[in-house]
Write the structure tokens for this entry.
Amino acid sequence: MKLIITPDAASATHVAAHLLADTIRQRPDAVLGLATGRTMEGVYAALADIHRAEALSFSGIASFNLDEYVGLPPSDPRSYRHYMQTHLFDHVDANERHIHVPNGVAADLKTECAAYEAAIRTHGGISLQLLGIGDTGHIGFNEPPSPFDTRTRVVELDAATRQQNAEMFGGDPEAVPSEAITMGVGTILDAKRLLMVATGPAKADIVAAALEGPITPDVSASAIRLHGDVVVVLDEASAGALSPETRALANAG
Ligand code: F6R
């Protein structure tokens, strides 16, 4: 695992955006696994800046998002499909036909999940998977416990996650959909490279649990330690509960 600790959130998201940009430069037809949430807003803003300033083209990439709320159509401003449009795709030259976000209003959700897995395979797998970490330790919406061989499926959201994401729903956790489609932990671990980003003091304890605690389905982010090519980018605040031994890994090589 490569660990990068930056002074603040802006520099963490900047570093993550540059890692994504490097992937696209090395492989203009890269298959990007994308995430949503507050942390990623800074990553996508920085990536859009790189697109403009350095003429980085997204025209050859394909993308697969981690998750989507069940019951929200892509046009709903609270849907993750809409998030991706406003935070990234409106600002870069990605080909609409190659953008994939699970369809939370599919008539048959089980078929939708199987088709999503098949589409990732058809594209040759994910080159780089971007990940945030939730208060429950989830990656994607893999709430505890999520076995490490899980694939794309419908999950029930944890009460803590509905609380975490309530802001977009008028502050009411009950208004947050109770279910979502998410790539599984196994789907995520199949990506060739993982890039996890966390910022802010509220993430410090769960980041330490994921990186130093037991590798367990109870903290799905701990699964990333089983992957051979992982980069974790943290700001000082989210790295605040790490042991000196783990911190010593930071910014080495
Ligand atoms: C969203 C996702 C989630 C978030 C996590 C952190 O697509 O996959 O795992 O990355 O909940 O969210 P923020 O960044 O809002 O704290």
In short: The two ends are 11 Å apart (CA to CA). Residues 35-39, 66-67, 80, 132-134, 138-140 surround fructose -6-phosphate (CB under 6 Å). The chain is about 35% helix and 15% strand.
